[in-house]
Amino acid sequence: MRNTWLVILTVFFSISAWSQQGTRQPLNQIFEVLGQRHRVTFNYIEDEIVLYKIVPPNPDLPLNAALDYISRITKLKFQPIGASAFIVSNDEKLDKPLCGYLLDQETKLPIEAASLFISGTNISAISDARGYFELPVISPEDIEISHQNYAHFRIAPLALYKPDCPQILLSPIVNALDEVAPQRFLTTGITKNDDGSFKINPTKFGILPGLSEPDVLQTMQELPGIENEDETISNISARGGTHDQNLFLWNGIRMFQTGHFFGLISAFNPVLPQTISISINGTSALFGESVSSVVDISSRDRKIDKTAFIVAADLISLAGYAHVKMSDNASFSVSARRSFTDGFDSPTYRKYRNRVFQNTIVTNNTGTVNVNTDEHFYFNDVTLQYRQKVADKHEFFIDGIGMGNSLIIDQFLDGSGQNNDLSQRHFGVGANWTSRWDDDHVTRVESYVSNYKLMASTESLDSNNLTTTQENQVVGFGFNFSQSMRLLPSTTFNIGYQFHETGVTNIDQIDAPAFSRNITEVMHTHVGIAETRWESESDKFSLLAGWRFNYFERIHVWRPEPRLQFGWQLSGPLRLEILGEMKSQTLAQVIDRQQDFLGIEKRRWTMVDDNETPLQESMQVSAGLTFKRNNWLFTIDNYYKKVDGISTGSQGFQNQFEFVKSAGSYRVFGSELLLQKNFGRFYSWISYGFNDNQYDFEDLTPSAFPNNFELRHTMAVAAIYEWRGLKLALGSKWHSGRPVTTPASEEVISDSNGDPQIQYNDPNNTRLPDFFVVNFSASKSWAIGKTNLRASVSLTNIFDRLNVVNRYYRVNNSQSVERVDTYALERTPNVSLYFSF
Questions:
Q1: pLDDT of res. 391
Q2: How many structural domains are present in the chain?
Q3: What residues make up the domain containing 146?
Q4: Residue 27 domain-assigned?
């Protein structure tokens, strides 16, 4: 028995001694023990050794062996002074704080708002938008890193005590909510919310085929339900609608211009940190004035970050962004972008030029002998934002945005010349006051003024010197008030009032023969809002039910609009979603003549009236399923949509109905499917869309026929690879051709006035050839100190396929029928550089 206890005690003390031997200790304590054991002293500067915390050397080692052990681990030097003293020096010392960059382990994207603190102290720090942090060099204790979306992490200070701030990779936390709202939808930075809407965060944007930078509206076109028959952002179709049926907001300001280069480039600066929310159905009652989607862009952030700057450039433009922290409660931001297309003829610009100016006044005279053409084009945009916190509960924003496109075309023929000008301008100013009284009550008051103007002046090349001037202007004012109240932990109630005044002016002038038209129309709209949102405690059910009550003064119409969102988590990986809405809008873009505004931006905004431009009203319902498990994502949505009150002028007819004024409707049945699989650094997806889109115009013969914007079948495939800042994307898009109308005969007939006229078959009796394109993108990011650098390249239409996106027929000079085709972009390269510091 005695021997047994002796063995136990021996093992216990052995384990205890080994445990103490294996525990890291501050270096100053180790020097104190060595000094007592070997009767020596160590002279050192405390700040040079404070970081070191190591396992003590074996007590059986002689002094020189113990010092060699310490030197191997710490790189410290020991210089003997006499027989009983040593000077400790640190050749590795750095005159800098501890610093580093926090990155997502999977995506390698910066992690913002992570908390860092030194154990046992009150020293802490927060990572900024680049994932960067700094801590003072004062303690040997481990650094704790925490973030609600990432696993807790500990790191020794020595790991950060390096000339370059190292990158620290954190592991994301996967929880049950990810089964419903995946962190990655198509690419990093895009998520789908429980209410069916999509959220795009360009600052966390991964990569998509054909994009060298996170263009807001180009990215939007990758989402299921968003289609485009000609690749431009000026013809975005949400479930069969036209571009003007989408509502675009920037910080609450209504935008009537959305594109640069007359539709090829988004008008919203991609370097501006902003978040985009896109609703295709089940829209909140807070939003009106659209019968299709709502695109809500916000650059407002509740955090006031450190001062930061961004500079970016591609082969079209140069852009910049500056955020200045004025105090802990105030900040100021500015962004600007300008093209250099009027001074540098890049390969990208030449491809864009060929695409935009097809079949317009810019190219119509290229075949005429002795005609010389000189053109100058540029675009620009700027944003301003001031933010002020007041007494912690209140927050005030002032936002401003301005953008423009300018095109000047000088043409000369036999000594005479003409000048053609086209300019597009948009300015907006908004103010927002938000009061967060407590966690359950929030009040918002905001107002905006928005001004859009499109102007064109055209001179003829003949001896008459005929001059045509055209102008389209929209001025909008809005006031919004809303109150959000959490009545129960699971129930939130919103009420509000909105007032909108919108004025539209259209001017046309011809000097010979003298003709002038100046029409201004004004609409006042009053809106009442009531909406409630309920979520079960288990997060299994969610419901939003709302009403939007509109009164349109100009036409004396009262229009109630219900909204619905219902979600049901059927099982762990499977969720059911039912959405519904009724909406209306009072503005529409119409085409009077195809050659208006030089034939480039030929659409003009018009106001609803009681005759040719009725109030547009929509009704839409959809049901969908989302399945996510083991990095698989599958979504399917089936929908029905009907829009009444459309006019022939808003549909861009170029057949027998081009000059006919009639009102009608369209209805769409459709399905959207997406299958996505993540393989760690590699992921891929395939999407398919089907829609049956039919017009109904009672005054036309026939009254029912395919919609001009119907793409019966659409498909997209992409493969993306991300690893340590390197991103590669290859993908293709395909869709069946849009409907077109063919002539019934090649012979030209004369109408009652003796003018030549084409005989057509039934409207939209055939279709264009299928559209197919393959795109590629690549980018690489580097963290250089406090600066982030990203280089990107893109190649659109790799195989240079000629895709016809529009076809119409006209009578040529020989009085015969001529076919005119418009083609999509040719093979187009682009390169961009991005710096943030």
A1: 84
A2: 3
A3: 98-173
A4: yes
